[in-house]
Inverse folding.
């Protein structure tokens, strides 16, 4: 595309003056008719030996035309030709600047039509002729091809060839546009194309950077629209033409495909495509977000997609980690929301673009699906779904051994794990680092039979790295039901008495009264205390292992038996430790 300003090439020399024969007024102006029986012709004889299929307009009186011709006598001898001068005839028709026969012969012609005209003497140069060139009373034969026609009253002609079903905005004055084009003369001769340069033509509209006709022809276009724009010479390059490719007084035809449009004053445009019900929180600056997206140019060309990588895009919002337009567009979204974000280039990759897929000054469109977001300061969100029918006086606390059913999923509904898949409840001792911190917190305070929904942020779950089956930085959603609870033991205890221990504990342990307690006697005694309800072991552990650990703790010298001197209750040990510290 050429700029509207003066060309850098040397201008064409002024057109050679047309032969005086084309400028002389006709001697005779009678309309006349063709003579019968081979007599003298009364009017021009017109043979239309090539008529184009499409004829959007025909030559009328007062039109400006450009055409080539060969002029001969009846015997075929050539007396003149525009081809020999390599210059088209450019002139107004029907105002006396041509011989009458030519004026009449051009009327009604279409661009690219070819005619053979037979002009009788009285409609040519009559009985005078042209000295040394055309004898008196000569009948003239012209082969004419029309290449251009326009009128001073013409305006830019716009034809919409393809209009997309969705038009987010139309071109206005002062907008910046990117478009492809093919430029031809009215006869179809190509003079320029953006496609051959491998890039769009990028410019402002209505700011004097383009020829006036193109400025007008682009107005109202939608991205993705195809137009045919026909521009008369006085709204193009006028009498001077442009270099060697656009002759003077040439009408121009542009087939244009608009790629995108924006204005330097544009802001980010947001369109909610789908909003899930029950949005209780919206993303804000400082949140960490996981989302999927498809990124395309305004003409629909896809340049990137997180789906192709089968992985969400994970980033902080409002912290400058992503382009400013996306930073703005993601704020205010809900989990599960689908949103279209249209970003002008000054809030994206600017005039330079990036890589080989995002050109300079490109408007970007992102269709995003918000998977989840959280803030590093978020706690576990707890929502009670149902309470047991009976009154609940005791709730789960750290140290308790609990059994619970759960379903675990991502916030977009993707199922991860479920205790129901294993046919048995999950077991854990609260506060013992046996489950992720957020789940441990969410189970505390529950009654047996209670159901809860827990939203666990990643810093209280599996963090940035994730776990097997859990993506990094994923917020987890749990539905839990507490099936049973066994009260735990104080920290550091493996067994506690429900009442005071026996006054002569060692004697009771020494079942065979031999002054020492081997592992078998120790285990028999402890199991009896548990079965009789006098004491209890740490819940959730293998009782044999727990009893074995208790024996090892009492067998101070590790000789495989406990003596009276070795046997001490933990409460006594703790008291001795306090006394020693004091």
């Amino acid at each position: 595309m050429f700029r509207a300003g003066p060309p850098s090439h040397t201008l064409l020399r002024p057109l050679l003056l047309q032969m005086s024969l084309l400028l002389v007024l006709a001697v005779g102006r009678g309309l006349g008719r063709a003579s019968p029986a081979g007599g003298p012709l009364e009017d021009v004889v017109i043979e239309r030996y090539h008529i184009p299929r499409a004829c959007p307009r025909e030559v009328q009186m007062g039109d400006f035309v450009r055409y080539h011709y060969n002029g001969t006598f009846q015997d075929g001898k050539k007396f003149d030709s525009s081809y020999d001068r390599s210059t088209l005839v450019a002139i107004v028709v029907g105002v006396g600047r041509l011989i009458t026969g030519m004026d009449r012969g051009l009327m009604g012609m279409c661009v690219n039509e070819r005619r053979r005209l037979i002009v009788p003497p009285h409609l040519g140069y009559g009985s005078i002729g042209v000295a040394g060139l055309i004898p008196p009373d000569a009948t003239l034969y012209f082969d004419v091809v029309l290449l251009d026609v326009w009128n001073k009253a013409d305006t830019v002609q716009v034809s919409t060839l393809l209009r997309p079903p969705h038009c987010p905005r139309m071109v206005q004055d002062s907008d910046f546009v990117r478009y492809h084009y093919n430029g031809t003369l009215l006869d179809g001769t190509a003079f320029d194309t953006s496609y051959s340069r491998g890039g769009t033509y990028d410019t402002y509209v209505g700011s004097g950077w383009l020829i006036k006709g193109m400025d007008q022809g682009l107005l109202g276009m939608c991205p993705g629209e195809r137009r045919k724009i026909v521009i008369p010479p006085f709204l193009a390059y006028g009498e001077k033409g442009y270099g060697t490719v656009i002759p003077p007084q040439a009408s121009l035809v542009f087939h244009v495909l608009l790629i995108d449009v924006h204005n330097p004053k544009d802001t980010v445009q947001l369109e909610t495509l789908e909003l899930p019900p029950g949005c209780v929180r919206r993303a804000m600056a400082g949140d960490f977000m996981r989302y999927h997206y498809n990124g395309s140019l305004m003409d629909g060309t896809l340049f990137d997609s997180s789906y192709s990588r089968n992985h969400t895009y994970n980033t902080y919002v409002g912290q400058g980690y992503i382009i400013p337009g996306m930073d703005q567009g993601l704020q205010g979204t809900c989990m599960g929301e689908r949103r279209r974000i249209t970003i002008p280039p000054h809030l994206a990759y600017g005039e330079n673009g990036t890589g080989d897929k995002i050109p300079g000054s490109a408007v970007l469109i992102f269709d995003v699906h918000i998977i989840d977001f959280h803030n590093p300061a978020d706690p576990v969100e707890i929502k009670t779904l149902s309470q047991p029918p009976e009154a609940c006086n005791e709730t789960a606390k750290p140290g308790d051994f609990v059994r619970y059913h759960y379903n675990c999923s991502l916030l977009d509904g993707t199922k991860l794990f479920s205790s129901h898949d294993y046919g048995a409840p999950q077991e854990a001792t609260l506060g013992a680092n046996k489950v992720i911190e957020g789940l441990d917190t969410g189970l505390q305070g529950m009654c047996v039979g209670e159901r809860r929904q827990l939203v666990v942020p990643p810093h209280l779950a599996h963090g940035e790295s994730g776990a097997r089956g859990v993506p990094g930085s994923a917020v987890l959603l749990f539905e839990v039901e507490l099936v049973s609870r066994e009260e735990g033991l104080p920290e550091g205890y493996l067994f506690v008495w429900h009442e005071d221990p026996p006054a002569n504990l060692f004697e009771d342990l020494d079942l065979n009264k031999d002054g020492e307690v081997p592992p078998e006697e120790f285990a028999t005694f402890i199991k009896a205390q548990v079965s009789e309800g006098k004491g209890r072991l740490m819940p959730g552990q293998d009782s044999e292992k727990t009893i074995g650990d208790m024996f090892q703790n009492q067998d101070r010298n590790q000789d495989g038996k406990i003596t009276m001197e070795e046997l001490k209750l933990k409460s006594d040990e703790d008291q001795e430790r306090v006394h020693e510290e004091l």
Observations:
- Residues 5-37, 578-582 have pLDDT under 50 and may be disordered.
